[in-house]
Amino acid sequence: MAQAKLIVFDLDYTLWPFWVDTHVTPPFRKSQNGDIVDTFNAKIKCYPQAPQVLQKLHMEGYILGVASRTSEIDGANQLLKLFDWDKYFTYKEIYPGCKITHFTRMQEKSGIGFKEMIFFDDEHRNINDLNYKGVVSILVRNGITNKVVNDSLIEFSMKRSSE
């Protein structure tokens, strides 16, 4: 059975329920009680299953990446550190522009082909762009969950095995 070699996640509305460049205000920090907060002390939360999804995939040996088009590059990286997710991501492409550029750079750095990648994002345009390039791209509707990831890995395997 074919297995994905690189699993890539969008950030906004995929791993966390907001746009980092408009809905929250950097800089971010941990409060005394351990909550992640923005400059106005508004609590910043990720989707409930995101930490477990990332930890599980990492423990299973998958290579993970991030592809985000946000203009709030520093804030996005700061949140990845504060959520303690930096350790999971081998590749991070966080800057404005087309997701194809993000994936082309990941392909160049990793040597992993588009057909060996799976991508999770909440925007149809990104899904369409990357499906066209051969990346198995999954539309995430209400944040990443174990079920979405598990079903998608099965779909990837079946799709690639039948090619």
Distinct helical segment count: 5
The percentage of residues in β strands lies in 15-25%
**What is the CATH fold-level name?**
Rossmann fold
N→C terminal distance: 11 Å
Number of strands: 7
Tally of individual domains: 1
Question: Could you state the order of secondary-structure elements as H and E?
Answer: EEEHEHEHEHEH
Classified by CATH, the class is Alpha Beta
Q: Mind telling me which CATH architecture this is?
A: 3-Layer(aba) Sandwich
Q: What is the average per-residue confidence, as pLDDT, rounded to a whole number?
A: 95
Which residues sit in consecutive blocks of at least 5 with pLDDT less than 50?
Answer: none
Question: What does the radius of gyration come to?
Answer: 15 Å
Strand order of the largest sheet: 5-4-1-6-7
Find the CATH superfamily: HAD superfamily/HAD-like
The shape is: globular
Helix content: 25-40%
Structural class: alpha/beta
Query: Could you give a short account of the major beta sheet?
Result: 5 strands, parallel
Keywords: Hydrolase, Magnesium, Metal-binding, Protein phosphatase
Enzyme class: hydrolase
Protein name: Magnesium-dependent phosphatase 1
Function: Magnesium-dependent phosphatase which may act as a tyrosine phosphatase.
